[in-house]
Amino acid sequence: MRGVEKAFGSFKVLQGLDLDFKQGSITTVLGPSGTGKSVLLKHMVGLLEPDAGEIVFFGTPLSRMSRTEKYAMRQRYGVLFQDGALFGSMNMFDNVAFPLRKHTDKSEDEIRDIVLQRLGEVGLDSALGKFPNEVSGGMRKRAGFARALVLNPDVVLFDEPDSGLDPVRTSLLNDLILQVHAEHGGTYVLVTHNIPTARSVSDYVALVWQGKRIHYGPTEEAFSSDDPFVRQFLAGDSAGPLGMD
Ligand SMILES: Nc1ncnc2c1ncn2[C@@H]1O[C@H](COP(=O)(O)OP(=O)(O)O)[C@@H](O)[C@H]1O
Ligand SMILES: [Mg+2]
């Protein structure tokens, strides 16, 4: 993302945001609630268009993509929304099978193999027939993760995967993210306001504040930084250079 600006009415959410995501790595974008994290993810997949600036996907600016190219780009993304965003009327199996049925011409036998493998990876082999409202929030997120991976995406976006999970389930989900990434690779972008999540899963950390990037770098570097902004941010301190608004 290069100098991305976005306002809703007179409210400027993104104010010249620069972000890079290195291929094959896990980057966490950390920022308080309401800073525009979900808005920036929507820009990445082309659901929102910037007022100024540019989003470049594997070398191609989104503004220069045709409809067909944008459609092809979206298929290279796997997205995990806050609550897994499963279809309530479909069981776990059909939820995960959905992208394969919609976007590929694979046979039901092939689909079955892939879905069982993906659900197995996230520990849901025994919940295939369960509907989203019959399982826990953590299980819905894991099913959402399985579904996000089912088309072998090059880039996976996670929107607050830890929201609504207790610390133990958060740390289990983080382990799972690391495990699946180690096995399948890909570029992962994870937005969260959860500092322990950023610390445990990411190779790189970007801090976003008031619609701008205030820090970007390797995780260890961020957590050992002397910069007063970065320190206050990562310590979650109320005292320091960052104010409420
Ligand atoms: N489609 C929209 N129309 C108007 N305001 C929006 C829209 N989407 C997001 N916003 C506003 O932009 C700000 C950032 O939202 P969001 O990206 O959801 O924050 P978060 O960092 O918590 O994900 C919020 O104040 C939100 O109300
Ligand atoms: Mg959000």
Binned, the helix content reads 25-40%
Spans of at least 5 consecutive residues with low confidence: none
Give the total of beta strands: 11
The strands making up the biggest β-sheet line up spatially as 7-8-9-3-10-11
- State the separation between the terminal residues, measured CA to CA: 24 Å
Q: What gross morphology would you assign?
A: globular
CATH class of the largest domain: Alpha Beta
What is the total domain count? 3
Listing every helix as H and every strand as E from the N terminus to the C terminus, the arrangement reads: EEEHEEEHEHHHEHEHEEHH
Describe this structure in words.
With 245 residues, the protein is α/β, with parallel strands linked by helices. It folds into three domains: 1-17 and 35-75, no CATH class; 86-202, Rossmann fold (3-Layer(aba) Sandwich), CATH 3.40.50.300; 205-245, no CATH class. It is 38% helix and 22% strand. The chain has nine helices and eleven strands. The protein has helices at residues 37-44, 67-75, 92-103, 108-121, 137-149, 167-184, 195-201, 219-223, 228-235, and strands at residues 2-8, 11-17, 26-30, 52-54, 56-57, 60-61, 77-80, 155-159, 187-192, 204-209, 212-218. The strands form three sheets. It has a six-stranded mixed sheet, with helices on both faces. Strand 5 and strand 6 form a beta hairpin. The chain is globular and about 55 Å long. The chain starts with a strand and ends in a 10-residue tail after the last helix. The mean pLDDT is 91. It binds adenosine-5'-diphosphate and magnesium ion. Residues 8, 13, 31, 33-39 line the site of adenosine-5'-diphosphate (ADP). Adenosine-5'-diphosphate (ADP) binds at residues 8, 13, 31, 33-39. It holds the Pfam family ABC_tran. This is ABC transporter domain-containing protein. It comes from Nocardioides fonticola. Keywords: ATP-binding, Nucleotide-binding, Transport. Residues 1-235 form the ABC transporter domain.
